[in-house]
Hints:
Number of helices: 26
Number of strands: 24
Shape: globular
Radius of gyration: 27 Å
Amino acid sequence: xxxxxxxxxxxxxxxxxxxxxxxxxxxxxxxxxxxxxxxxxxxxxxxxxxxxxxxxxxxxxxxxxxxxxxxxxxxxxxxxxxxxxxxxxxxxxxxxxxxxxxxxxxxxxxxxxxxxxxxxxxxxxxxxxxxxxxxxxxxxxxxxxxxxxxxxxxxxxxxxxxxxxxxxxxxxxxxxxxxxxxxxxxxxxxxxxxxxxxxxxxxxxxxxxxxxxxxxxxxxxxxxxxxxxxxxxxxxxxxxxxxxxxxxxxxxxxxxxxxxxxxxxxxxxxxxxxxxxxxxxxxxxxxxxxxxxxxxxxxxxxxxxxxxxxxxxxxxxxxxxxxxxxxxxxxxxxxxxxxxxxxxxxxxxxxxxxxxxxxxxxxxxxxxxxxxxxxxxxxxxxxxxxxxxxxxxxxxxxxxxxxxxxxxxxxxxxxxxxxxxxxxxxxxxxxxxxxxxxxxxxxxxxxxxxxxxxxxxxxxxxxxxxxxxxxxxxxxxxxxxxxxxxxxxxxxxxxxxxxxxxxxxxxxxxxxxxxxxxxxxxxxxxxxxxxxxxxxxxxxxxxxxxxxxxxxxxxxxxxxxxxxxxxxxxxxxxxxxxxxxxxxxxxxxxxxxxxxxxxxxxxxxxxxxxxxxxxxxxxxxxxxxxxxxxxxxxxxxxxxxxxxxxxxxxxxxxxxxxxxxxxxxxxxxxxxxxxxxxxxxxxxxxxxxxxxxxxxxxxxxx
Length: 702
């Protein structure tokens, strides 16, 4: 649908709407002046989408806040920021408030924090409209309903009266987009708008952003670390490092002809969903520098394999390349032409286990789930509690894990992945079914047996900072499990130092605290702690999702190498299906507490049979602009149904694109009959009455 614009557009498509020149942003800290942005310049045209990419701390978000005028008064901002030729720097907060929400809008990373919890979403959209335009309540509320309808909120007349906590994460992000476009802004800044979302919801949000841009004609600045999103959404790219732009150009220039070593390395470290990759990923060694008292020279020197003395003496400026729209900052620009990440950042050698040569059937089973169920009572009442229903968190799954194998577990939030992990880690009695670790049924264990078995089953959490005690040095953090299990102090000291070397950290840093390490290093500390008791099985819960892509590659390589050296078995949970393709041997796809497809990772990725698996794989953006332009994406409608009230028959039918084109008899079968997990080819099995490749008529319904 279309909605009536509130104002006449001030610029035509292609005309410059936002101009930034020599932007410098500096703010004070205890360590000294933080030079967060150092000399950024760009022009943004109406209707254009420009991406700003780079690792954490590169200055992406600081730039967006400077454009919006949201930095505190202690921040020193110099240069020029012009909107429609009008200088924004130097304007007071009242003047900028007249522009924010009307001419410029921002979509924040966490919509739950950005939305006020005590007001309905309709109240907040209406407030955004009436803050800038003199319209009646009735007209403002009608526009709010139209906006929610535009961004795909079902039943907008009813949901406009709902509070933010009554929406899922993806729906809240849609509300944020509706609020951002409420006043037909000329510039929309999207700061990591899909980072915390499931891949299917991410696809929906990106489609909504494209619709919003089409309706408003706004220019979009997309700030993201996801290079697939950049390839899918953007026309131009600015790559930032240590507060400076180090390469700029069209999306094709950056992805197909990168010239700055940092850009080349960044693109090379990303696992590809559409490619089968074996062995190690290329790695950008080291971490971005602190932007407090930067040394002279190029900030990338400590991580650059091609640095020479000139690079250490002076910082390079952006220079034009063969393309008129493409610039890069490197002293060796001409010499590095045509070199890719394989030449600049060759992947490290990984240890290969003897188990890799054994067929799967000949390896011992280390973990087995048989018809596993975990149901929770749904209670109501404050004083007199009564049961009103059941939450079917895990509703009957079967899988096994062999020695030296990695099993990927994927699916949307709420599908039962985390509950499955908890059932494995609790070593207790499930609602029904059985969990066997190393052949032992966990429901029959005594307390002592459970403690002994726990040595062979360890976990690495998603957020390394939250899982490490900030009050303890890392020596004590790693040593604690060994102390609990009665290791001698002399043995503990030797093992902690050996473990730090094993995960690529300096043993001499054992007396430091978690806050003294980077995110990737903290995750390595968590892995070292998990390895301290020499486990046979490791459960990895989103271990790389909180890391930059460059740091992520190093942790993935470490896990691969440790598996080869120690014969470890992994249960690897992730929402990034490209990471799963790289690291896993087998993959299990979960939906509403059940496994809907399972099998060898290459077979499932190359020939998915279940519509849900096909939609998941279709939703992942691929870091290749040409591929993204020609892909026909399957975008699922709606959110995951409640596990307390799942649909009858096939649980996926309410969102299934295949169900929509079936005849009445076939649809009745989907409604009434629960599909079994049926073996197809090899060890690939799918739970669908009509499993098979995607057909053209099915895509036509989307």
